[in-house]
Amino acid sequence: MSESPTPGRRRDQAALRRRRASRHVVVGGGAHGASPATTGDGDVPDAETALTDAPPATSSVGGVTSAVPAATAAGDSDTGDRDTGDRETGDRDAGGRRGVRRRPGPLARVSTVTRAGARPLVVVLVLALLAAATTTAVLGWQVMAAHREDAARAQALPAARSAVQKVFSYDHAHLHKDFVAASKTLTPSFAKKYHASTKDIAPKARQIEAVVSSHVVQAGVVDADADKAVLVMFLNQKTTSTKLDGPRMSLVRVRVTMVSQDGSWLIDKVRAL
Questions:
Q1: Could you give the CA distance from residue 255 to residue 253 in angstroms, rounded to a whole number?
Q2: Which residues contact 227 (CB under 8 A, 6 or more apart)?
Q3: Cα(72)–Cα(64) distance, rounded to whole angstroms?
Q4: For residues 73 and 29, what is the distance between their CA atoms, to the nearest angstrom?
Q5: The CATH number of 140-272 is which of 1.10.260.40, 3.40.710.10, 1.10.3720.10, 3.10.450.230?
Q6: CATH 3.10.450.230 in the chain, residues?
Q7: What are the pLDDT tens digits along the chain (273 aa)?
């Protein structure tokens, strides 16, 4: 028969069990409880040995149990949190502290390459737009110039017809009236020359009772811009006087320069051809 333990021995055994329980290390949880870590000879190891030899912690996801290293379970896990953007790489400094350095991920690198490749395209587009704008401006200016030239031709031609017929016509019976009417179709500078010539014509015209009438039979614009036109004109001129047996017909050819002043087309120069 075995000797039953005395009360003192039972107290010692209870104290030993409490010490063992206090030094017991449990890793994991839930349904997977851990048993005290022991050495091969049944003695209770110290705390450092128990922590080093502790079995891996387990985790259950969707009913599947997997072992997780103790260091990973106790710390933060970054391996499953990688996205398609930036990735973190850890570096330790001289003090052993862990720092975080961000490195561009695939999408960031693609975005950088895309921006770099887009710059030449933007430059090309800007140059193309500038060229198109310049071409449009030049064409617009040419169109406007053509319209102004057409307007000058359309306005200068009838004004020249009327003005030339007045300048090359007069009647001894009302010379002053005819000269004044002709002067209204001339520029101030050319009107001075015209008045100088009429001073010589008037006495002779009264003396021989001269009557001169001119009619434009052909005219054309040689050159024109917005405010100037050059024309060549053909006139049939009829002259009667006391010195002539009958009317005399003449063909007169002149080159006429017309300018636009204050909204009116006036003769600025006349040259016989």
A1: 7
A2: 152, 259, 260
A3: 18
A4: 12
A5: 3.10.450.230
A6: 140-272
A7: 455 667 777 778 887 887 777 665 444 444 444 444 444 444 444 444 444 444 444 444 444 444 444 444 344 444 444 444 444 444 554 555 555 566 655 555 555 545 555 677 777 778 888 888 888 777 776 667 677 778 888 899 999 999 999 999 999 999 999 999 999 999 999 999 999 999 999 999 999 999 999 999 999 999 988 899 999 999 999 999 999 999 999 999 999 999 999 889 999 999 999
Joined tokens for residue 30: 């839930």
Rounded Cα gap, residues 97 and 13, in angstroms = 46
Contact at 8 Å (CB) between 251 and 235? yes
DSSP label at 69? -
Question: Do the beta carbons of residue 39 and residue 45 sit within 8 Å?
Answer: yes
Torsion of CA 200, 201, 205, 208, to 10 degrees: 60
